[in-house]
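Checklist before submission:
- one chain only
- standard amino acids only
- sequence pasted in full

Submission:
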Amino acid sequence: MKLVFIGADHEVTGSCHYLECNGKHMLVDYGMEQGADTFENAKLPVPEAQIDYVFLTHAHIDHSGLLPLLYARGFRGEIYATDATADLCSIMLRDCAHIQQMEAEWKSRKAKRSSDIVAVEPLYTMEDAEGAIKRLVSCHYDTEIEVSEGIKIRFTDIGHLLGSASIEVWLTEGSSSKKIVFSGDIGNKLQPLLRDPIPTREADFVVMESTYGDRLHELPKSDFETDLAAILKETFDRGGNVVIPSFAVGRTQELLYFLRKIKVGKMVPGWEKFPVYVDSPLAVEATQIFTENRMECFDGEAIELVKANINPISFAGLKLAITSEESRDINFIETPKVIISASGMCEAGRIRHHLKHNLWRPESTILFVGYQANGTLGRAIVEGAKTVKLFGEEIEVRAQIKQLRGLSGHADQAGLIDWISAFEEKPKKVFIVHGEDSVATSFAELLKIEYGQRAVAPYSGSEFDLTNGKFTYEAEPVRIAKKKAKPASGVFARLLAAGERLMAIIKNSDGMSNKDMARFADQVTSLCDKYQQ
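Returned file contents:
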């Protein structure tokens, strides 16, 4: 039994861990890296075509975003996820594939204009996303699932996102049995829509996140909607717009909940009928999924509203922009308004158009309500950039730049400590991941020195023997060079993936009859002879 650390080690995005047991190859998450990368990620220990199962903690792209690439490279196994996560992935992976293709087309046009004839290929296609979605296996919370002989899993609500979960994995190989728990992203307590994280009581080993392992969330001087209402009034009185870069899934729905309360409470005097535009087809679809899963995942006041037949994330004056034309029209409406658009870190999507139209306007406010990773446009704006580049044009930053910190989907340091302290016996080892370099290191030290946990923050590539409870390889950090080698792309990448898939089938052909194996071998040989000529 083996655990290998692949992604989000001393970094916040690109979560991925590899498990091996009874000859089965498994991944826990396969996420996309967002923002600046500091360290090189280790390659998967086996070709993608040999991965048997993926256990997915939640639908955020930094945990799920490379699943279509896994499929493109030959994966044909099963992806286990909660019901709501499977629903969200069905739209998020398609959206991500669309963005990949649009960006590739834009870069290809740009290359053509500069006389560079090399076409840019997307990381993966819509067909790859559809293929990955078909591999999803929907699972209920709190239900033990036997994946295969010697491998069981269970999902527990972790309160970070609709459908988010920590995952308990029981592994048995020969006479050895071990339990490893992956925290996923641990949710903040007392969130407006979702339930608080549910603790796990027993584990031999724990892999836990540390996004906010070095800080406590600021206690708001007043409640969130009061602070938000004040920003709305100040901006509207100046004649400006409030532009909110927001994650389409999770954060947007929380904002709608608070804006409904502000509307019902008439908390913006003189502007009671202010319009709210949600400009993200993904956010619109996700809001519908939130509504469909509300009974399983909502908590507190939100579930009471549902029981009273009141939609807690809808209200008068809410306008949904679906088409590109509807999106463009928003910026030609002179009435002061709220514009909620993705992406939350301003790296892609329609938010960049709204920034182009509002960043230079001193009467407008750009309001950040979520984490901004290193190297993202959102982080640059928050840290005081005087100008930013959008669509090849330098835009002066003259708008009011504000942050509301009372809203966070991640537990702070205290919340993380509460979660790991809930285990009835201290785990044999606690692996700290999913935190910036210094944060992961300091949080591991904090747990070790002040709480007696056997904590360590491994780097990508480290390998741990679960049977004997020790590292067989402790990787050193490998910093990314300024220019990374370009991976194989396009048709050649497809050919390589097909070859890997063929090898995976050959390695798993032990049970095939001699007659079938001989025919298979002849077909492969014939194919090789044809193309070698």
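Reviewer check: The CA atoms of residues 290 and 391 lie 33 Å apart.
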